[in-house]
């Protein structure tokens, strides 16, 4: 993929005008308060995953409307009685939590790792998911981007972003976790969910958002013809005249808007040849990040020659070092 977006110097200064709905904070305050009526820990049981150096637990927690969400919890073996820092991780589009041995690096680095399954996904890559989405929707195309897209209250990502906030709540309630040392992480869709969780949760110690999806929707839809953003294009190609209604719904779930409310330090990454999450949409989120949360420190890792894979293992290494430094480890 050739360079197609703004030059890097312009990206670094790119702060688009915002189209936040006036009731954004009320919308999310009532949504999260309703979810928190339910006890967050539903079930936690050990799993024999054949791993001697890592302990594994199968977690079910109460997400949106108390609905059950699955997650893997991995930690260094024998540390359940300690108070370790934790990383809550969210997955990319279409993936599921898979098998425990697929994601061991945070546990190997000395953290409790909570890997949230994504409701209704988990059948495109990895070893699959285990969490259904019990909520139906109106007309939609394949994928989840247009499920309930004509009404913010019914939109798919209202449920999934609430799940992300509740995953943070669940991590803080786990035995062996220091609730004051919880960070969030994710790439692509997971990066967008990390921004949402950061904007809707208090007291996080760090946010690691790689090539985040779910940001600056209008520009993303205008720039790329790849899924998942192109799902919105295909929907509007049939439902003519619904564009303003659709983008109004999406404004409640934009990582640019939600990330503005975050107060935790953040490490982002961007790939300048990314044809799935355009660089300008990532920089829109980065440049507005924390502007309503006290302007916390933030860093951007730039991968000039990469597409959506961005830094991959190199970025994981950078995350370990960044979070260790923030926690004095």
Description:
The chain is an alpha/beta fold and 329 residues long. The model has no long low-confidence stretch (mean pLDDT 97). Helix 5 (189-200) links the parallel strand 6 (177-187) and strand 7 (206-210). The protein has one domain (8-327): Rossmann fold (3-Layer(aba) Sandwich). Helix 4 crosses helix 5. It contains 11 helices and 9 strands.
Search tags:
329 residues; alpha/beta; Rossmann fold; nine-stranded mixed sheet; CE7; Acetylxylan esterase; AXE1_dom; AB_hydrolase_fold
Distance between the termini: 39 Å
CATH homologous superfamily label: Alpha/Beta hydrolase fold, catalytic domain
Q: What fraction of the residues are assigned to beta strands by DSSP?
A: 15-25%
What is the number of strand segments? 9
As for the number of domains, it is 1
User: What is the N-to-C order of secondary-structure elements (H for helix, E for strand)?
Assistant: HHEEEEHEHEHEHHHHEHEH
Individual helix count: 11
The CATH topology turns out to be Rossmann fold
Low-confidence stretches: none
Pfam family, one: AXE1
Protein name: Acetylxylan esterase
InterPro entries: AB_hydrolase_fold (IPR029058), AXE1_dom (IPR008391), CE7 (IPR039069)
